[in-house]
Amino acid sequence: MKLNMRAKLIACLLTLTATFSPQASSALDYGKPGDPIHLTIAHPCCYAEVWSVFVNSGKELWKKYLPPGSTVEYLIGLQGAVVVNQMLAGKADVGYMGDLPAFTATTKTQASDVRIVASTAMSYDQCYVFIVRKDAPEFKDSDEALKWVNGKTVSTPKGSCTDDFVQKLFKRTGTTPDSYLNQNIEVISSGFKSGRLDAAAVWEPNASNLVEEGLARRVATGKTIGEKGGGFVVMQADLIQQRPDVVKAWLEAELDAQIWMSNPANAKEMIDIVKSKVTGFTDKGLYNAIYGSYPAKDGGNEVRLYLPYTFTPEVTELVNRGVDFLKDNKVISVDKLRDDAIMPSFTQDILKERKLQSPVGLVRAQASN
To answer: Among the four residues 77, 102, 187, 256, which has the most C-beta atoms within 10 Å?
Structure first.
């Protein structure tokens, strides 16, 4: 913990703006309302809190709402930072990403003007999952597990929501590891296999997959500190200004996707869709990422995904917490996001038209398949 965590965090998040093109600040032409459109959707491959994009893609829900003749393609990145780069470079029109990348992206107006238009999900244990090596002692609760972590080697991808979570978890429990490393999921997995790593914070489905492979055990989550993380949909401001019909159409399909996800009868098909889109995960690891049931003593929670869709007070509180974290770590220079960084009117109007309220659904833990 005595490492220069702040410097590493800043270096990691500054890569968000490292690859935008010179054309990024030029206005994008999306045609006139009612015209067919080609949309490019960017999203991470392996972050369960934005899996509604897989539902929209796999079931082609967007075809019901976009103008006839429209087409959609998907750019899949390893994590949110890649998606932010694609948005800021003007290579993507719509992006799905976790909370910290979304908030950071809205502040990079010198590269491109992007806005947050919807919430994909919130959860205690999607981005906030703390795991220990498989041969760690059995612990009676999360506090005992964190005491064991004192003086040991811990890792997480710095600058991500897991980093935010770990810093709060360590502060709450007074934990001081010997080393706090900045590593991606591949290096973390290798560290558990070789025995060089004692603990890590990772997001789903990586967390459940490491557990299923017998490399690690869950010992704490956001439930341990009483905080949820979240995912968001962001869009180019030019798209919002020129094609409100397209924005509404896409968010109608997003709502359908979230409602469909919340139906437990769709669990098998849900995982089949995800399996068709990602590789390198066990079937059970993918299933447990959003349907797995874990003990309360290890931070387990009956609801794996809350689906607010729009911007509720709880979502707003998450935004404020995230902005505080980014400002404290000198990643952004503002105390709050600009007034138009978040545009709630589309989701609010759609819910009103459909006579629905937030949350639009819950994804609950189920018995193992």
So the answer is: 102
Q: Is beta strand 199-202 parallel, antiparallel or unpaired with respect to 129-133?
A: antiparallel
pLDDT, residue 83, reads: 87
What span, in angstroms and rounded, lies between the C-alpha atoms of 81 and 98?
A: 9
* Ordered DSSP codes for 74-117: EEEESSHHHHHHHHHTTS-SEEEEEHHHHHHHTT-TTT--EEEE
Neighbours of 69 (CB within 10 A): 9
In this structure, CATH architecture of domain 5-123+228-364 = 3-Layer(aba) Sandwich (3.40)
Q: Do domains 5-123+228-364 and 129-225 have the same CATH topology?
A: yes
- pTM (two decimals): 0.90
Across the beta sheet with 129-133, the strand order is 179-182, 153-156, 199-202, 129-133, 216-221
Q: Are 20 and 111 in contact (CB under 8 A)?
A: yes
For the chain, the domains span 5-123+228-364, 129-225
Query: Model confidence over 308-356: pLDDT tens digits?
Result: 999 999 999 999 999 998 998 888 999 999 999 999 999 999 999 999 9
For residue 145, what are the β-bridge partners?
none
Helices and strands counted in the chain (H then E): 15, 12
Averaged over 122-146, what is the pLDDT?
Answer: 96
Round to whole Å and give the CA distance between 252 and 87: 21
